[in-house]
Amino acid sequence: MSSSPVARRAHLLLSLLLCGAGALGFLPSCHGAAEETPGYVTVSAASFKPSSICSAPDPAAAPPRNGRSAVLRLTHRHGPCAPSRASSLAAPSVADTLRADQRRAEYILRRVSGAGAQPQLLGSSKASASVPASWGYDIGTLNYVVTASLGTPGVAQTLEVDTGSDLSWVQCKPCADGSSCYSQKDPLFDPSQSSSYAAVPCGGSACAALGMYASGCSASQCGYVVSYGDGSNTTGVYSSDTLTLSPTDAVQGFLFGCGHAQTGLFTGIDGLLGLGRLSMSLVGQTAAAYGGAFSYCLPTKPSTTGYLALGGGGGAAAQVFATTQLLPSPSAPTYYIVMLTGISVGGQLLSVAPSAFAGGTVVDTGTVVTRLPPSVYAALRAAFRSGVAPYGYPPAPPNGILDTCYNFAGYGTVTLPTVALTFSSGATMTLGADGILSFGCLAFAPSGSDGGMAILGNVQQRSFEVRIDGTSVGFKPSSC
């Protein structure tokens, strides 16, 4: 049971007095006190700084899975584990990252408030294939990438992983006008060099299934177009080819967009791997083999790796997850939506009207920081500031959409009140320090209106294995 706010504050003040005595020579001086205070977490201040040493595990160290599995070692494209073929392009600034993130969040909230078709849900698990995931800055947000091979012979492709997208695509030769493909380190995918490539014909069921992604036909080939929340877009020929996840796991006839014209914030990566809820996503296309279940673990830092797993983890393995119900999403069938019911700060539940959470929460790997209804965010911010205040960390200027920032220079450790997110059925994510702070700021922002949709961003998902199937979303901490 958590101690009372009065008891915690007394404990904090006593710790700070003892640290002050250390400055006078009576006791060892310290920064960041009360490591054992219930409802608080203390970490090294250095843990928030980028590492220049690769600490990624061997791919074989990924968690064992039921059925078949395939594991590929992946790295942050700008981190110390990056392979020699990784992009050499500079990462965007924090300001640019947060601006792009705001556009994406606004786009998601517009979509979930509109009209759409019922989602095509997926079935039960039969087998598994896993692909490690790593942190990638390259398309303008703090998103994650995997590497798979496309075509015959296979050509390695570094792809952003996105649970908020259905259609997968890569840049392809030829570019529409020679300048409509963005810069990437790898050569463009050349469909003429793959013996298993085929353009999807117009009039077929696959072309008809594109729905809002269709862009008409040209020379009897099915066209596609995808526009993203940050203003980026891709257009080209809807195609099929072999997608190889591992030496033993390949998806024959995988449907994807062969992009001949791209604009916007795409830089460095080769394309995108859609993990959305519709049947054209990787999850939907492999449902017969892997049952429509998948999981991922987003690494905490660019110097470490995570994984993406298709299928597996069912039965007894699934019981180690704290699970919450997956809700229907008629107006935005791409998204995975759950019900956030409460937030605790420092072990104390925020006093917020339940109606403020009524719009549900999108679980999204492509949004950086979690978005909350205004009254929920205001309560979280007030409780967090109150919990941090006794430590006297100097405030820092707001950073874009992040308004609660601190300067930890000169501190050996940083002590923060814990933040826990509780969902329907009682599933709870107690966040680590990397899920509470980002860029030195409280990694949450207000968005929309009370009773509207929230978004669970990728900062808060770091180190959790998140498992999604046709009925539920599960969370398992400290998984990568």
TrEMBL record:
Catalytic residue list: D162, D364
Spans through the membrane: none
Pfam families reported for this sequence: TAXi_C, TAXi_N
Domain of life where this protein originates: Eukaryota
Signal peptide extent: 1-25
GO biological process, one term: proteolysis
PROSITE patterns (UniProt xref): PEPTIDASE_A1 (PS51767)
Domain Peptidase A1 per the UniProt entry, residue ranges: 144-478
UniProtKB keywords: Aspartyl protease, Disulfide bond, Hydrolase, Protease, Signal
Entry GO MF terms: aspartic-type endopeptidase activity
Keyword Protease belongs to the record: yes
Family: Belongs to the peptidase A1 family.
Name of this chain's protein: Peptidase A1 domain-containing protein
Species assigned in the record: Urochloa decumbens
